[in-house]
Amino acid sequence: MQIMAFNILHFFVLCVFIPTMLCAVMRVKRSCAEVKGCLRQFPMIVDLVEKDKAGALVTLTYEVLLNDVCSKQEELKTCLAQTTCSVFEQSYTGRATRDVLSYICGAGREALLSEASCFSRDDFELGIYQCSKAMKLETDIAALQIQTGIGDSTSFCSVFDSLLKCVQLNVQRSCSHRAADFASSVYGHTIKALAKHIGCTFNFKS
């Protein structure tokens, strides 16, 4: 069980914290066909989840487009509920997309629209990228702890917590406190399913 959890986490670390073209290819191969079918209507959120593309939020700051995406929310939930992916990492993107969509269409909607000018700034995406880059050392340490038996899969919980705090700090520095809360919550929802899967608990706005 611990080895399987490490494999999932290692895959997650590679594809979310260190986004590359190789990771994109790996993700396509890993996600089962049923989940990919469910996600075809949500490319911008999939980019946010899989490739750590914070700039994908800009598209959703147009209310007409946001309304269109949100109108398909129940359709996505129904579709995902009917999939039969047997391995967690094959359905991870689907669960993360569902959680992010639920947030931006609900509690986070007003902040997304009102802070649109922030999410279109170059330094917004740069700040998120810097957070992902900074997490590389922490993920390497956590992975080493697991490999050597010093820690277990929950060693990654502190990495997740650091990511959310980094996103909050960087966005608040370049935009506003409200935008920072929103961005941190969005990233919290991208890792919510995985965090729950390995037993992590942390607080972010839901």
TrEMBL record:
Name used for this protein in its record: DUF19 domain-containing protein
Signal in keyword set: yes
Signal peptide: 1-23
Keyword Signal in record: yes
Keywords: Signal
Superkingdom, taxonomy of origin: Eukaryota
Organism annotation: Candidula unifasciata
